[in-house]
Write a structure and sequence with these properties.
The complex is a heterodimer. Chain A is mainly beta. Helix content of chain A is 0%, strand content 50%. In chain A, strands 2, 5, 6, 10, 11 and 12 form a six-stranded mixed β-sheet that branches. In chain A, a hairpin with a 4-residue loop joins β8 and β9. Chain A starts with a strand and ends with a strand. In chain B, the strands form two sheets. In chain B, strands 2, 4, 5, 6, 9, 10 and 11 form a seven-stranded mixed β-sheet that branches. Classes of the chains: A mainly beta, B mainly beta.
């Protein structure tokens, strides 16, 4: 069965620090990849997605993610975090041709002002 | 962007009663809707996938007679938790998609507490 691993469960950073959250998946074929964010008390929102093309994807709020097929990874990055980035981040993977997603466990990010 | 609403946002009920949760896509037609359960500090667990006009597809371990899903129109899906028990207390989230492999848009969730 396909699985999605988010290795960092809790990350604590100071403002202006750089961020990288790991996401690895186990499916060997074509995949569609997503990062979602859940701010405290709010619903899940799409940060960015990759279906095909340039493996470096730009999302909202200064986030980006790089798809590295050989490593089965889709890590999320931001060069300088802000206090408002405090949230739960979820990686999700759809096998190509399927609309059934598999979510990672999530990473809780706390940014200190 | 696409908006998905859920109603109610929270509900408290007695053990043995049934609770209906609505999920609506407000500004697009949702070919597919998903129902998730989210436990505290854990990921989303997909419960079922429903396509408009057809029976829902349930994930392994999810009781279809307990969690009744209806997707009667392209903008509305409902989840009914029948004969709810305290262990059914959870955060239920729906999402809607416009088509195969399309992005999912999530509702705000419904907090169910069964006493």
């Amino acid at each position: 069965a396909q699985s999605v691993s988010q290795h960092n469960h809790h990350v604590i950073l100071s403002e202006a620090a750089s961020l990288e959250l790991g996401c690895n998946y186990s499916y060997g074929g074509t995949v569609n990849l997503f990062w979602y964010v859940q701010y405290p008390g709010q619903h899940l929102q799409l940060l960015l997605k990759y279906f095909s093309g340039d493996p470096l994807v730009k999302g909202i709020k200064g986030f980006e993610a790089e798809f590295i097929k050989s490593k089965f990874s889709f890590n999320l990055r931001k060069p300088s975090v802000q206090w408002s980035d405090t949230a739960e981040y979820f990686c999700a993977v759809n096998p190509g041709g399927s609309y059934i997603p598999t979510f990672g466990r999530g990473t809780s990010l706390i940014v200190h002002p | 962007g696409a908006v998905v609403s859920q109603h109610p946002s929270w509900v408290i009920c007695k053990s043995g009663t049934s609770v209906k949760i609505e999920c609506r896509s407000l500004d697009f037609q949702a070919t597919t809707m998903f129902w998730y359960r989210q436990f505290p500090k854990q990921s989303l667990m997909l419960m079922a996938t429903s396509n408009e006009g057809s029976k829902a597809t349930y994930e392994q371990g999810v009781e279809k007679d307990k969690f009744l899903i209806n997707h009667a129109s392209l903008t509305l899906s409902t989840l009914t938790v029948t004969s709810a028990h305290p262990e059914d207390s959870s955060f239920y989230i729906c999402s809607a998609s416009g088509g195969l492999t399309d992005t999912q848009y999530f509702g705000p969730g419904t907090r169910l507490t069964v006493l």
